[in-house]
Amino acid sequence: MSEQIAVTGANGFVGRAALRALRDASMQAVAVVRTSASADPRAEVVRVRSLDDITPATFAGCESVIHLAARVHVMNDAARDPLAEFRATNADATLKTAEAAREAGATRFVFVSSIKALGDADSGRPLKETDARNPPDPYGISKAEAEVMLQAFGARTGMEIVIARPPLVYGPEVRANFLSLMRAIARGMPLPIGAIDARRSMVYVDNLASALVECATHPRAANQLFHITDGEDPGVAELARRLGHHLQRPARLLPVPVGVLKTLGSLTGKSAQIERLTGSLQVDSSHIRDVLGWRPSFSLDSGLAATAAWYLNATKS
């Protein structure tokens, strides 16, 4: 009988890819989803109203848990106390989920964190797993706190804790800023990013999913912390140009100087967004390659091609 692995948040963008990767590896998947959410019919489905309703019975028979369920980062968060909201889901409920998994007999808990637990910019060199945590916002703080809590839990109980930190995740069905960029390019909108050469690490969703399966099953992954990327770090303008190629619509990039963009950001109250756009965020993912021998199956270009093909097909229907 194959190993049984639970995936929380299994109906999400990364969760669906994780289920595919588990099937490809001939492993049994248990999809943990909210009561009202759709779920992959090819997986065993466990429905819960919220993370607070997870119990040991949720993970019965599972050797490992890949924990993806989270309160995601959003721009212009309308919550009265965003940090409290993020902490409740991403830290406190995550620890309770790990406790339930251990009580059910699972020996490994894979926590999908975020590079934001470390920071949102590099300091002139790619960020490493050994760098000090410096989360920039409530979302990143909640992820960083969850990492610390889980590592202490693992040390106390003997449960194997594996932490995965992806940067920007893209692929078919992507949303948020990446989708907005594709939409702008496809519509021929002029974009003032032609002079931005800041490099950004990224990870294609199926590359991330395959790495998470390794985190859940590889003996040497126990109690490790891994950064997961495609291994290629395009500049912002380069990324737009490559997307334009695959969207069959050359990107219209205006070479506005970075200093001008920052001035406009300060005048419009969007300095934080401009800093993220113009700053470098390169991530060193050599550790998972060295320890587990993992390599991304998809290159950056093939990932962008698949994402653009999905977008073009979706806009035709």
UniProtKB/TrEMBL annotation:
Keywords: Isomerase. This is UDP-glucose 4-epimerase. PANTHER family: DTDP-D-GLUCOSE 4,6-DEHYDRATASE-RELATED (PTHR43000). It comes from Candidatus Burkholderia verschuerenii. It comes from the Bacteria. GO terms for molecular function: UDP-glucose 4-epimerase activity. The keyword ATP-binding does not apply. It holds the Pfam family Epimerase. Pathway: Bacterial outer membrane biogenesis; LPS O-antigen biosynthesis. Its EC number is 5.1.3.2. Belongs to the NAD(P)-dependent epimerase/dehydratase family. Residues 5-222 form the NAD-dependent epimerase/dehydratase domain. It is an enzyme of class 5 (isomerase). The keyword Isomerase applies.
